[in-house]
Amino acid sequence: MVEPVALEHFFLFFFAAALVIFAALGYALTYSFARLYQKRSLLYWAGLAYGVLTVSVFWLAYLANLHGFWSILVGMLLVGYGLAPVLIWHLCVATHD
Predict the structure, then answer these.
(1) What is the DSSP string of 12-76?
(2) pLDDT for the residue 1
(3) Please, are residues 49 and 27 in contact by the beta-carbon 8 Å criterion?
(4) Residues 13, 60: contact at Cβ < 8 Å?
(5) Average pLDDT, whole number, for the chain?
(6) For residues 34 and 40, is the Cβ–Cβ distance under 8 A?
(7) Confidence of residue 2 (pLDDT cuts 50, 70, 90)
(8) Given this model, what pLDDT does residue 4 score?
(9) Over the stretch 53-73, which tens digit does the pLDDT of each residue have?
């Protein structure tokens, strides 16, 4: 049976999972504030947060022994999360005009 997370990687797994949560929060907040207050500089911070999110998600997938199809699925989920705030912003703008 394959161990989901090796015992010696448990702390790293916990840290990577927390980093995923905080990077996703940072991306969503900085993107929405950049669009709300029309501050282009916050979009760069949103991009940085998304980069941290990407690295931490793939690090988490590696530590959880997710290989093959699961790596593709993780990549597809990252693309979806990258597009979600953009599409939600456009939906909110369209419904409130």
Answers:
(1) HHHHHHHHHHHHHHHHHHHHHHHHHHT-HHHHHHHHHHHHHHHHHHHHHHHHTT--THHHHHHHH
(2) 52
(3) yes
(4) yes
(5) 92
(6) yes
(7) low
(8) 75
(9) 999 999 999 998 888 898 999
Residue that has been written with the tokens 């996703």 in this structure: 24
Residue 28 Cα distances to 35, 51, 86, 92, angstroms: 11, 13, 9, 14
Check if the beta carbon of residue 53 is closer than 8 Å to that of residue 81: yes
**Amino acid at residue number 68:** G
Distances from the Cα of 75 to the Cα of 7, 8, 45, 79, 90, angstroms: 26, 26, 21, 6, 23
Conformational region of residue 66, where left means phi above 0, alpha means psi within -120 to 50, and beta covers everything else: beta
Query: CA 65, 5, 58: angle at the middle one, nearest 5?
Result: 45
* 85, 28 Cβ separation under 8 angstroms: yes
Please give the structure tokens belonging to residue 31: 């993107």
